């Protein structure tokens, strides 16, 4: 059965870096893995070392344009089959995992019909994998539209600030408001130091948030970011990579 894990959090917390490190570690464990970039900023491909990727947004724009033409060139075309074929063309097959990029939000007009088609296709696609890792937007936009319907584990990444934890709390509340089919919700504190560790544990307890991991401030990540080196190339002995392995164990992966 597929395990779907979504990572979210406010900008600047290292959300995409955490997603990339999870993908890196899980891709080495012999699982059939799908990485989904559901953030409109599409930073995940670069963090993983992928370039010039196509997006589902492009495929949706194409189909929406066909649907809204006064005189479609192919009025009898199977629209679901067209969208499905384009999505399978978009999937990047990388060593150890596949990558799918959602891309930009919709343009003008109603995309309800296209989104309904996409939901069914995503349901079938996700079922083909052992694990799906989703780098999601902080606003949970794709979840509110139910394009990706079932989430087993939602991980909110926060930094050492109270504002970051408040964002995690608001996301928790938003999930309840959306009545989404999301299982457990966890928090990962990122860029943790010896001086703020105890404070972060206390803050999570006060806000009744489940802390599943605390990733230390890792100078190797900072160095790789400055040099533009993909996080996929980080060494196994980096403090961040070691903590990611602990988180994977806690998630039962």
TrEMBL record:
It holds the Pfam family CbiA. Residues 5-230 form the CobQ/CobB/MinD/ParA nucleotide binding domain. One of its GO terms (molecular function) is ATP binding. GO terms for biological process: negative regulation of cell division. InterPro entries: CobQ/CobB/MinD/ParA_Nub-bd_dom (IPR002586), CooC (IPR014433), P-loop_NTPase (IPR027417), ParA/MinD_ATPase (IPR050625). SUPFAM superfamilies: P-loop containing nucleoside triphosphate hydrolases (SSF52540). GO terms for cellular component: cytoplasmic side of plasma membrane; cytosol. Keywords: ATP-binding, Nucleotide-binding. PANTHER family: CARBON-MONOXIDE DEHYDROGENASE ACCESSORY PROTEIN, SEPTUM SITE-DETERMINING PROTEIN MIND HOMOLOG, CHLOROPLASTIC-RELATED. This is CO dehydrogenase accessory protein CooC (Nickel insertion). It comes from Methanosarcina barkeri MS.
């Amino acid at each position: 059965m597929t395990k779907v894990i979504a990572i979210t959090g406010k900008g600047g917390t290292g959300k995409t870096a955490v997603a990339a490190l999870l993908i890196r570690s899980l891709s080495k464990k012999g699982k059939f893995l799908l990485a989904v970039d559901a953030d409109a900023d599409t930073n995940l491909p670069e963090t993983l070392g992928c370039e010039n990727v196509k997006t589902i947004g492009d495929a949706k724009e194409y189909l929406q344009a066909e649907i809204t033409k006064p005189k479609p060139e192919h009025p009898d075309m199977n629209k679901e089959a067209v969208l499905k074929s384009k999505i399978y063309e978009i999937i990047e097959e990388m060593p150890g995992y596949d990558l799918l990029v959602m891309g930009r939000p919709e343009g003008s007009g109603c995309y309800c019909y296209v989104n309904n088609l996409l939901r069914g296709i995503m349901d079938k696609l996700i079922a083909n994998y052992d694990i799906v890792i989703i780098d999601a937007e902080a606003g949970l936009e794709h979840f509110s539209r139910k394009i990706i319907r079932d989430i087993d584990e939602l991980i909110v990444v926060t930094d050492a600030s109270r504002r970051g934890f408040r964002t995690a709390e608001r996301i928790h509340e938003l999930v309840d408001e959306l009545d989404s089919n999301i299982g457990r919700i966890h928090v990962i504190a990122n860029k943790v130091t010896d001086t703020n560790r105890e404070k972060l544990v206390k803050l999570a307890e006060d806000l009744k948030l489940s802390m599943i991991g605390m990733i230390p401030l890792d100078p190797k990540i900072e160095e790789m970011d400055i040099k533009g080196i993909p996080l996929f190339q980080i060494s196994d002995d980096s403090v961040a990579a070691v903590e990611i392995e602990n988180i994977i164990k806690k998630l039962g992966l």
